[in-house]
Design goal:
This protein has 391 residues and is of the alpha+beta class. Helix content is 22%, strand content 41%.
């Protein structure tokens, strides 16, 4: 049809686009031919744990090549060589198995590819032999010491690279606490001089490799044995006796292991007796009910552990109600004495009054008042006789 474009017209319209496409392909092809093939090694991480094997694959991204593996010292790896096993796969890849027998395997291992053109390209991987943190020996992780003695805990660990030893107590680095009695040696030994009761508890030996953020811990336990000690706040006590009178003695006890407590009185051990003797759960308190005079005496509290035995004594004195009343009262003789004193005081007062008002002694005053006359020979009678004679 006249409306359709001719073949020549279409060809002329496509020519510029085709030329551009062909030009691009030619340029890309020449640039690709000008680039060297790349060699890669998988995996890229060259860490191998001590005593284990690791497999690595060397691959060329295009073309064919002849491969060689080179050790860290630059020498070529021979097939069947100790700690190395070669695995030829095809013209574009090869493999190698490396055994990490020791740190001497550390270094850069290369995969060398020789192309058909004679050009050589290489890939490399950094081999690092590592060892996980392992504590050396079983060691004595539990120790008992008596207060005042010394103790050492030895902690060492192996690893590649060598781990750092840190001692931890209450979540803090002991070496930074600067305790005069507690030190950590360069070899990682923890030493405590003159052990005290608060030193008892857990200590953690931490071995770490910072470069791998690897941490292992081992716990050590110290038990501090403290001799048993017993004492009372007061050495004696006095109570009032009676059927409803009770007394409780408290024995203050310290020591580790926790001491066993027993009581005795008058040389005899005391045991719980209903209505008379009672103890609390650890026997540090003794309660005596219905205290009487017969309960007086020395009560001994004995604290005993495997380190030491100690005895504390409390003296109990009982005052009975009758004795208290007698000690506060005056008694029969006292009453008689008081009456006599009062009588003498009254006589003195009466005698003084008679002499002051009537110029007579107490006897004349009584005679006048009782008989109604003056006694002969009295001062009043002599004065009256003088008056009669004068008249």
């Amino acid at each position: 049809s006249s409306d359709l474009p001719s073949f020549n017209t279409v060809t002329s319209m496509m020519a510029p686009a085709g030329l551009l496409l062909v030009s691009f392909l030619l340029i890309f092809s020449s640039s690709v031919r000008g680039q060297n093939p790349k060699v890669s090694i998988i995996p890229a991480n060259g860490e191998i744990e001590l005593g284990t094997n690791a497999y690595f694959l060397c691959n060329i991204d295009r073309g064919e090549a002849t491969f060689q593996w080179l050790k860290p010292d630059g020498e070529q790896v021979e097939d069947g060589e100790e700690d190395y096993t070669l695995n030829s796969i095809d013209e574009s890849s090869t493999g190698i198995t490396i055994k990490a027998s020791g740190p001497e395997k550390n270094g850069v291992v290369k995969c060398r590819a020789e192309l058909a053109t004679g050009k050589i390209v290489e890939g490399s991987i950094n081999i690092r032999v590592i060892q996980r943190v392992v504590f050396n020996g079983k060691g004595d992780t539990f120790k008992e010491r008596t207060e005042g003695s010394a103790v050492e805990f030895q902690c060492s660990a192996s690893g590649i690279p060598a781990p750092t030893i840190t001692w931890i107590r209450n979540s803090e680095d002991i070496a930074k606490q600067r305790h005069g009695r507690v030190t950590v040696t360069d070899s990682g030994t923890l030493r405590i001089n003159s052990v005290q009761s608060p030193d008892g508890g857990s200590y953690i030996c931490r071995a770490s490799i910072e470069s791998r953020k690897e941490v292992e811990e081992k716990t050590f336990t110290l038990v501090v044995n403290v001799p048993a000690r017993a004492h009372f706040k007061l050495n004696s006590t006095t109570v009032m006796g009676g059927t409803k009178s009770n007394v409780t003695m408290i024995c203050l006890v310290t020591g580790n292991p926790k001491p066993n407590i027993t009581w005795s009185w008058a040389g005899k051990p005391l045991e719980a007796v209903e209505g008379k003797y009672a103890f609390n759960s650890d026997a540090s308190e003794l309660s005596i009910q219905n205290v009487g005079k017969d309960d007086e005496g020395d009560y001994n509290c004995t604290a005993r552990n495997k380190i030491h035995q100690d005895v504390a004594t409390m003296n109990l004195e009982v005052l009975e109600v009758q004795a208290i009343a007698q000690s506060k009262g005056v008694g029969t003789c006292g009453v008689v004495g008081i009456v006599l004193v009062i009588f003498l005081v009254v006589l003195l007062v009466v005698d003084a009054s008679c002499y002051f008002f009537k110029k007579r002694g107490i006897l004349m005053c009584l005679a006048t008042n009782l008989l109604g006359r003056h006694p002969y020979g009295g001062k009043g009678q002599i004065l009256q006789d003088k008056i009669v004679r004068a008249h």
